[in-house]
Design goal:
CATH topology: Tumour Suppressor Smad4
Radius of gyration: 26 Å
Distance between the termini: 5 Å
Number of helices: 0
CATH architecture: Sandwich
CATH class: Mainly Beta
Order of helices and strands: EEEEEEEEEEEEEEE
Number of strands: 15
Number of domains: 1
Length: about 160
């Protein structure tokens, strides 16, 4: 038997591999590409442009802020968590997208360096329900806004469910 989850119960941090993508560009210094053989004067210039140097990606670490209960049933003065209750989260590229400098830049970062969304509780008791929804407990599954699997990690220490 595990403790009943409730409003504010913590949810585990997760990682979405390769979620943030970006293009890498390299600066090519300006150079003389054609010189006059007699005078040595430059007739045409090359460079002075950014050129593609490939692409990269990094992970997104998802940090849930806790279960937000929609229930009107309480345990120890807190609304219980149930199937499909929301789990707001934020995410951040980790490791971070590299910092551009004078010779290399990172562009077309997608979707961005960080963001937020709404996950939800995705499992609960098979025998205990509140308002027609399965009761959540410590170790119940949750799904982040990026689709990664998480678990409820805290809940009641004196009210239990199966």
């Amino acid at each position: 038997m595990t403790g009943v989850a409730y409003n504010g119960s913590s949810v585990s941090q997760t990682t979405k591999s390769g979620h943030v993508t970006y293009d890498i560009e390299r600066w090519v210094e300006r150079f003389c590409s054609n010189r006059d053989e007699e005078t040595g004067a430059c007739l045409s210039w090359g460079g002075g442009v950014w050129v593609s140097a490939g692409s990269g990606s990094t992970n997104a670490v998802v940090s849930p802020s806790g279960v937000v209960s929609a229930s009107n049933v309480y345990v120890n003065g807190r609304a219980i968590a149930c199937l499909n209750d929301l789990v707001p989260d934020t995410w951040e590229a980790n490791p971070a997208v590299p910092t551009s400098n004078g010779f290399t830049r990172y562009v077309n970062i997608s979707p961005s360096r960080s963001g937020s969304g709404q996950g939800r509780v995705t499992s609960g008791s098979s025998t205990v329900f509140a308002g027609g929804r399965a009761l959540g407990s410590i170790n119940s599954a949750a799904l982040s806004s990026l689709g990664t699997s998480a678990r409820i990690t805290t809940g009641s220490s004196n009210v239990f469910t199966n």
